């Protein structure tokens, strides 16, 4: 069965590997482990370039190293056309605080960071690949309910098998995504993440060494 896998990088990072020792994740190995018996024609990895903070000025450097490592996977394509929108917003403090019980709760200013475009890019490539007959099965690794309609259309209008894998350990799977798909996995086990790691050092096609970031 010819399969294309669509990975929401931001969703996978925050759902599966943030705060764990498993950030050096080999996505080729992960897909092969989760989807045995498939002919994985392509893995599409979607991300946005991360923003450095004063407290973490190496975030973008670590991401660049990881993307270089991902590009050693033969059938993987990196799509990094997304971006982060940064805005200062006044939002209610949590837990809600009422200095004056007759007025709305106290607001505080926060720096709101939002990823843009990635979900649209995933939906677009999923639909174009479907229209072009590039797969028998599509697998989406994300818990983003914005992807419900394209997943549902590929399955119901075009008769393709579509699986959805939830990368979140703590959050339950979107019920809407689950219903839209042909099948679903509720989460990615930590034992699988531990098994599917790149070696500490590897080489790219030009023979240059890529080394796992020390803080990972």
What does this molecule look like?
This protein has 216 residues and is α/β, with parallel strands linked by helices. It contains seven helices and nine strands. The strands form two sheets. A seven-stranded mixed sheet has the order 4-3-2-1-5-6-7. A two-stranded antiparallel sheet has the order 8-9. The longest helix is centred in the middle third of the chain and has 14 residues, at 118-131.
Strand order of the largest sheet: 4-3-2-1-5-6-7
Helix content: 25-40%
Kindly state the number of beta strands: 9
Q: CATH topology, anyone?
A: Rossmann fold
Give a short synopsis of this structure:
The chain has helices at residues 9-17, 27-34, 59-70, 118-131, 148-156, 175-180, 190-195; strands at residues 2-8, 39-48, 76-92, 107-116, 137-141, 161-165, 183-185, 201-203, 209-211. The protein is built from seven helices and nine strands; from the N terminus they run E-H-H-E-H-E-E-H-E-H-E-H-E-H-E-E.
List the helices and strands and how they pair.
Blueprint: E1 2-8, H1 9-17, H2 27-34, E2 39-48, H3 59-70, E3 76-92, E4 107-116, H4 118-131, E5 137-141, H5 148-156, E6 161-165, H6 175-180, E7 183-185, H7 190-195, E8 201-203, E9 209-211
Task: Summarize this structure as a short list of keywords or feature phrases.
single chain, 216 residues, alpha/beta, Rossmann fold, 7-stranded mixed β-sheet, two-stranded antiparallel ribbon, 7 helices, 30% helix
